[in-house]
Amino acid sequence: MHVLVMGAGVAGVTAAWRLLEDGHEVTVVERQAGAAAETSFANAGLVAPGHAFAWASPKAAKTLIKSLFLKDQPLRFRLSSEPAFWRWSLRFLAQCTSERARRNTRIKHRLCRYSQQALQAVADQTGIAYDGARRGVLYLHRSQATLDRGAANMQILKDAGQALEVVDRERAAAIDPALAPSKDKIAGAIYSPGDESGDACKFTRALAALCAERGARFRYDTTIRALDAAGGRIERVVTDRGDLVADAYMLACGSYSPLLAQTIGEQVAVYPVKGYSLTVPVDGANNPPTVGGIDEDHLCAYVRLGERVRATAVAEFAGYDTSHRPADFRSMLRSLEDLFPSGADYRRPQYWACLRPMTPEGTPILGRGRLANLHYNTGHGHMGWTMACGTARICADLIAGRTPELPLEGLTLR
Ligand SMILES: Cc1cc2nc3c(=O)[nH]c(=O)nc-3n(C[C@H](O)[C@H](O)[C@H](O)COP(=O)(O)OP(=O)(O)OC[C@H]3O[C@@H](n4cnc5c(N)ncnc54)[C@H](O)[C@@H]3O)c2cc1C
Questions:
Q1: Among 277, 294, 299, 329, which residue has the least CB neighbours within 10 Å?
Q2: Is 5:27 a contact under the CB 8 Å cutoff?
Q3: Is the pLDDT of residue 73 over 80?
Q4: What is the pLDDT of residues 102-127, one digit of tens each?
């Protein structure tokens, strides 16, 4: 079968790899000049089933409303006149009950665990070098009160079989010795020894190169304008470089998937939630973090990627705007420097902003909608690097007519 994958981010490329493994002919269409040039370019790099919480929760609803009135918050909710924004926000609020939060977290965690194993299998099979580190992740808490709350919240993941340990500041500094000089700034951490980290962009680009070696065609610099359907099937994909035809089509365009789905009259509840990412070189500095983590009180994630340290933060509702100013990075830089004062060369930051393709539930949309030969692989939100190899497997199973290894509950078009 000839499958046309739309989008060469981590979701599209991992799916292309899996489809080639199944013996399909694969074409990938991407508007950028190469793979992983949008959201998969500079994310926090954490592969973190130990943090697979749904964003929508009773607390999130209150935080969203508060953020309307406060400035410089890690969560920046802004009202918009767009109907898509209101549809998404109302659906998000409907997920903010304790019961929905528990259900969504369980489904998300199950997918993240499955996907981590799938990522490890692809990494081991291909030997791709992606600055990977399998040393766990530390979720740091500055005060005893937030540590206690974090410990209570993590119970749902522990009950689902995730190894998680509450550690005091001494043990946190033993796990990551780079924390030793600043350990008095934290009360302790939740340590997830099974979590890991790595550069999603390096991984995706190397995997795209391997896909091309195995015969996949990559059509870069090609923008998809619309999908064209007739008789319950996609007939062709309309691009700025002509029409493309295949037997099956996979939509993996991240935050832009709903705009393309709209051209065939299908509504996909994915909305862009902007995040900011800052990368600094390690050189010259002598004490960079050795284990990835999150400064939970400032909602700032950080990771060591070879000779670089990266921090990411902020969830902002700004539509499709990806612009950024140095001021947007001030608070995450403060958090990083505070924890790792000599962690990297903070005078040479590289700034980036991109859009998390969020669903209200926090779980992606996989498989078919109304049309027989259109498969969704989108809406990976804030955990697409963690989830991509697992969602690739599930989508390939569905295209091949196999029953996926995971139940599809909560993972289909809704
Ligand atoms: C600040 C930040 C930190 C994050 N940290 C983590 C983390 O630590 N761990 C984790 O697991 N996840 C993390 N994520 C989430 C993760 O990065 C995303 O979920 C993931 O990159 C989404 O991948 P994707 O392939 O769906 O989208 P993308 O990478 O955006 O790929 C979609 C592709 O489709 C292409 N495209 C779109 N429209 C068209 C069109 N019309 N025609 C042709 N091509 C088109 C785009 O150019 C793009 O290349 C983070 C995200 C952000 C923003």
A1: 299
A2: yes
A3: no
A4: 999 999 999 999 999 999 999 999 99
